[in-house]
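Tokens in:
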């Protein structure tokens, strides 16, 4: 069995916290680091280990064994100086993979000068994904694979309802690959008052060619943006 990947997230603001939690969900071991005790306490018992410390203190950094991590993410957002100094210290102690949250073009230029090229701009990513969703009718969510290819969740076009995947032949007719189907189902919930019903989403997995598309299905498709756009123009509400 492959070993669990190990990461450290330095800076537990909104981005850092959500990244740490998502990495844990994906099966990784995560150390969360922040100078703010309240932020550290929030993640106690939610991630592998959380520690309050000043990441600009090289002696404290060395004690954490960050050199052995599969990656260290510097997610500090507000303190530009602390982000740069923390990165410099990580280089000094021999961390091989450093990923930085970038907060400005100046920040990125300085990191490039330090030979740090693995950078992320959360705001730019969110903006690009929102723009994609706004430009394509019926898209509920999207994930960009490359400049041209994306995976998107799209409402079922009315023309698809009641037809099987074999009949639709998405690959040949629309140049798209169906990843899966998210089926919205209404069920009674034991947590609700008797008689109340709640919507649940069931993942079909790898749909068979005989699978019939239902009215509230959400199609998860992969392909070129231009082909996704064509599909969205079929009249989904």
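Residues out:
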């Amino acid at each position: 069995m492959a070993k669990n990947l190990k990461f450290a997230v330095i800076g537990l603001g909104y981005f850092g916290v959500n990244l740490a939690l998502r990495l844990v969900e994906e099966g990784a071991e995560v150390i969360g680091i922040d100078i703010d005790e309240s932020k550290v306490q929030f993640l106690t018992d939610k991630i592998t280990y959380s520690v309050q410390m000043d990441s600009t203190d090289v002696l404290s950094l060395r004690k954490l064994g960050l050199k052995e991590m599969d990656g260290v993410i510097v997610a500090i957002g507000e303190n530009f100086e602390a982000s740069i100094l923390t990165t410099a210290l990580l280089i000094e102690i021999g961390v091989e993979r450093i990923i930085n949250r970038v907060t400005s073009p100046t920040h990125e230029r300085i990191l490039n000068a330090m030979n740090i090229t693995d950078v992320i701009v959360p705001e730019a990513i969110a903006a690009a994904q929102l723009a994609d969703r706004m430009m394509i009718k019926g898209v509920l969510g999207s994930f960009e694979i490359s400049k041209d290819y994306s995976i998107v969740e799209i409402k079922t076009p009315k023309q698809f309802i009641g037809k099987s995947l074999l009949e639709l032949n998405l690959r040949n007719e629309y140049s798209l690959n169906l990843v899966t189907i998210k089926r919205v189902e209404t069920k009674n919930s034991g947590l609700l008052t008797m008689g109340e019903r709640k919507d649940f989403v069931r993942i079909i997995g790898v749909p068979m060619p005989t699978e019939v598309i239902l009215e509230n299905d959400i199609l998860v498709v992969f392909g070129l943006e231009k082909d996704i756009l064509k599909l969205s123009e079929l009249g989904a509400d």
